[in-house]
Amino acid sequence: MEDIFGQQFPLPKKITQHCPLCGARLSENDLNVLEEDDRGVLIYSSCANCKVGMLARLHAVPQGFVGVGMLTDLQLKEIDLLGSAPVSAEDVLQVKQLADKGKLKIQ
Fold first, then answer.
1. Is residue 1 part of a domain?
2. How far apart are CA 46 and CA 7, in angstroms?
3. Per-residue pLDDT for the chain (107 aa), expressed as one digit of tens each?
4. Which residues 6+ apart lie within 8 Å of 101 measured at CB?
5. Looking at the domain assignment, is residue 60 inside a domain?
6. Is residue 12 within 8 Å of 58, Cβ to Cβ?
7. Is residue 105 part of a domain?
8. What's the domain count of the chain?
9. Whole-prediction pTM value?
10. Is residue 7 part of a domain?
């Protein structure tokens, strides 16, 4: 991936080598690049040991990397963030109306 200055860089080793929850070593197969653009990279990793997933958005800056991440129990196949339309207020209202009518059970 190229950073905003046009330089090639690897993903940070701390992100790609160990699970943030249990510390188990991650393999290269545990890391998936979901999106890459001129603003940064969105990655998903999963730990074979504790089964936790992590989504992280990383940006390259002159001093290194800036990023934000979150732990999740979602699996890669459940993550359908890219290319989907944002949830609108109308969508939320429809779900509430269906739940109020008993046509949708929310747990």
1. no
2. 28
3. 444 444 454 555 555 678 888 888 888 778 888 888 877 888 888 888 998 998 988 887 888 778 888 999 888 888 866 667 888 999 999 999 999 999 887 76
4. none
5. yes
6. yes
7. no
8. 1
9. 0.60
10. no
Cβ within 8 Å of residue 27, ≥6 positions away: 48
User: What contacts 24+ positions apart, CB below 8 Å, involve 73-78?
Assistant: 75/46, 76/32, 76/44, 76/46
> Do residues 48 and 77 make contact, with C-beta atoms less than 8 angstroms apart?
no
What is the domain extent for residue 30?
Answer: 13-100
